[in-house]
Amino acid sequence: MNLPSKLPDVGTTIFTVMSQLANESKAINLSQGFPGFDCDPYLVDLVTRFMKEGKNQYAPMTGIPELREILSEKTKSLYQVDYNSESEVTIVSGATDALFSAVSAVVQPGDEVILLEPAYDSYAPAVKLSGGVAVFVPLNIPEFSVDWDRVKDAITEKTRVIMVNNPHNPSGYVWTKQDLDTLAGLVRDKNIFIISDEVYEHIIFDGRKHLSLMCHPVLKERTFICGSFGKTFHVTGWKIGYCLAPKPLSIEFRKVHQFVTFSTATPLQFALAEYLKDERKYLDLPGFYQKKRDLFCSGLSETDFKFTPSQGSFFQLVSYKHLSSISDYELSVKMCKEVGVACIPISVFFNQKEDHKILRFCFAKSDSELLEALDKLNSSNLF
Ligand code: PMP
Ligand code: GLN
């Protein structure tokens, strides 16, 4: 048999590779982004309760009304923006599903999709599988802000979508009002859609406010907002998220979503609908994660790495450019095996694997695990 690959350049994701290596090396795993602590036991009790109550068959394709309604209310109260719970909110099996379904709904063969690099690893393959052409525009390094002149230059007659991620993985960059306004100015008179990955919307620091793209009317009408409960409620293994989009966009989105997964785990949806009634569960998240960021950064300041504290997400970047010319991939493997701390080399988030000598650490871990990792980093002779 001869199966020509549709994704010849794609291997196993770096997250799987590094997590496996961390396990084999018994290293502290600060690579793949997932909390190293459990979720609220009440959330587990709720799932158990709904399972026992028999909520075990297919949910509606778009999600259960209770969850769509409370999401619509939450969005209204946080951002003063309306999404009709019936026609504009769709529950999906993780933000990955939302991103893939949105790309598949919009991108036709030959369409260009602008991706800002470093970009989360699922974007480019989704574009390619739809026959689209990914056009990579680098962010300004080391701030990781958007280079709007380059985005403007990249827009052509064929541009159909711009994919954005705020707060940004891996850098933690958080968008400003000016970012929203500039993007709106660029797409205002064009038939360009936006896919906005906002999975870290509630993990944002130093009093910053998350500016969802829905907050700008020019952007709202053309944007698919992709969210994930995995990040917000420490349940990345549940793979449940949502897509908010105006009705005409949601109609097309749902046509795809129904044949990707059809629907999403029913008891999880009932549990989350109940859990979301207490807004403290997500409003307290910035404070919770800021303590972890600060703990991690204070330890990092005793190492030779250079860094700027993350503005959002649960990732911290560090640069070692001034210390060594070893590739970030090699350094990550060496650090994992010899120091016992696993991280992600950010070259993997670039199409051409550009090596800026920057590593990503996930600080969504218990304080003791973070302290142990810092201890290992401090006492290592890596360079
Ligand atoms: N987008 C970004 C930027 C992410 O970091 C992740 C996962 N960590 C996802 C999407 C995928 O989210 P989910 O697990 O809900 O599919
Ligand atoms: N989003 C997570 C990260 O950036 C990983 C998710 C995955 O393993 N696919 O680390």
UniProtKB/TrEMBL annotation:
Pfam families cross-referenced by the UniProt entry: Aminotran_1_2
Protein name: Aminotransferase, classes I and II
Cofactor(s), by name: pyridoxal 5'-phosphate
Family, per entry: Belongs to the class-I pyridoxal-phosphate-dependent aminotransferase family.
Keyword Lyase in record: no
Domain Aminotransferase class I/classII large as annotated: residue spans: 26-376
GO CC annotation terms, alphabetical: cytoplasm
One term of GO molecular function: pyridoxal phosphate binding
Residue ranges crossing the lipid bilayer per the database entry: none
Keywords: Aminotransferase, Pyridoxal phosphate, Transferase
